[in-house]
User: What shape does this take?
Amino acid sequence: MSVKIKDQPFYIQSTAVLFGLVLLVYIMSQLADILVPLAFAAFLAILLNPLCNWLQHHKFNRVWSIFAALLIALGVVTGIFYFLSTQIIQFGDSLPMLEKKFSLITIHLKEWIAVNFNISIAKQDQMVEETLHNSRAMLGKTLNGLLGTLGVIVLLPVYIFFMLLYKALILNFLYEVFSEENSKKVGEILGETKGAIQSYIIGLLIETTIVAILNSTALLLLGVKYGILIGCIGAILNLIPYLGGIIAIALPVLMATVTKDGYSTQIGVIIAYIVIQFIDNNILVPRIVSSKVQINALMSIIIVLLGNQLWGLSGMFLSIPFVAVLKIIFDRVDGLKPWGKLLGDNIPTRHMGQRWPNRRPKKPILPA
Assistant: This one.
């Protein structure tokens, strides 16, 4: 005689769910080197699938259409990296001068701290050394994340090719693994997932291009050195929800501090980036990036931080589209609909335990 979990007391159900989540997170953490490239490849394969279908309709067979789509994507990425590399080479030529100016500013800053806060320069050097020592673990994690990213870049084309080649096989598996009466619901989930991922990634690419142009234009007008490079880096960092924008502002402010006297340029950079962030958050994101699935701000921040803890930088990029897919599934499964509402951005006007204000019970009508 089998015993169902849902028939058990709440504390047993919650313990089973918690144990399952812990086991799932542990497996995902241990298999990060395999799962991260697969996750990126799945999203990019969905993005390239319409191009492959279009090429197939124009006398290409399946294999050659996939090759052509991958070559087009590789050409676009190579062009972007070539443009950024030319800017980085110019930045490298001025690196000794920037390092000398930065050292001078650091000396003045230490002297100012020593005078105003009564902390000796030797004590400051000791504090900096201790901070660097304590941050070695974080640095190691960052390097591991960069190495993992390189691994992703190497494996991505292989995974994308085979995912597109075996697309029908994968879809048939997803249909057959569920019972036949759920095939319509599975089809709806797959259709919404494809649309959500495609609109999200294409929207991000368009948003990043516009933000890069706005950042670079503002920095060039303010006279910040290497404005195009810093503006493009800021736009890429902006892909990291909520946290990347803060780092993006710090970079041009630091460059202006090193290369210019006074503080007018730094103030101008901060004001310009605040305006650009306002345009991005209130115009670009709602109209360009917004997909069929919306995740509220609180859940987005929590998800990004959890993704960073799980898979590092890759987890921060993957967290939002991954949870968007989960929300599509939650909204289609009756027992998981409350979780879909928790992730969504539809804010109810009142909670279910709250009574309507100023509503009095009707008095019974007495017979005449």
Summary: The chain has 13 helices and no strands.
